[in-house]
Design goal:
The chain is mostly helical and 298 residues long. It is 58% helix and 3% strand. The protein is built from 10 helices and 2 strands; from the N terminus they run H-H-H-H-H-H-H-H-H-H-E-E. A two-stranded antiparallel sheet has the order 1-2. The two termini are 59 Å apart.
Amino acid sequence: MGDKIPAPAQDTSKSDDEQFEDAQCKEEFNERAVDEVIEKVTGLSTRKPPDTETDVFVDCVTHTGVDPGTNKAADDGGESAQQNSGSDDAVEPAFEDDLVDEDSQRDYECGLSEEEKAANKTKADELKQQGNELFKQGEHLKSLDLYTQALRLCPLDRVEPRAILYANRAAAKTKLDRKRSALDDCTKALEYNPNYVKALLRRANLYEETDKLDESLEDYRKVLELEPANSEARSATVRLPPKIAERNERLKEEMMGKLKDLGNMILRPFGLSTQNFEMKQDPQTGSYSINFNQGAKQ
């Protein structure tokens, strides 16, 4: 029998932690070597961005404290964000003065009597009427502020008035080109009243303007279920499907182009390209089959 090969002597001069770190370093070196080979062959980077030790969560709106009765910040810290916006053409940021904190409002209303709730509802109605007048005069920023104040007062169990307030505020935000926030308000209005046709139409328009065509078509179809004779919804259900099909075809072509570029990058080291592969679509199922053509020109 041959002599046995002695096992490598264990280095006892290092602690367990030091030996573990050495092993980790060797493993990381091997992983880097493998990554470098993959990058050379495929041209694709396998490196990941460095991990951070802690997750960072960023709050878009900084609240300095909220009065549960009014939902207003306890310390404004200067002029409001709406006043700083300057004009109807301001860029759409996250506005603290637009906040309606319904959780805090619910806690606040628990301590109110029915008479106090009724008084708040009356004040909210007055603010809404003032907001409507300002909206008609083109004072959209001021009307938005009044609708927000009304929402902070109108009791949460008055679902119809709150739906109208959210829909009206969405109209004001639309005029101010705050489409994303207007969409949120339309959705809130529909949470209070799912069959609110005006809010559905407003949201459908906003969806179409922001290129969310599928969502827009769905809202218009919902309108037709509620009002079969609605001319705006009927026109939209004819206009949108071809636009959706055209968009989907364009996206498919862009995706196929990117896949072809990626395929050529991977196949290039092997002297091949995507031209060596022919895709054929089955007209009955719509699925694709791929055939290899070795004689295709590179």
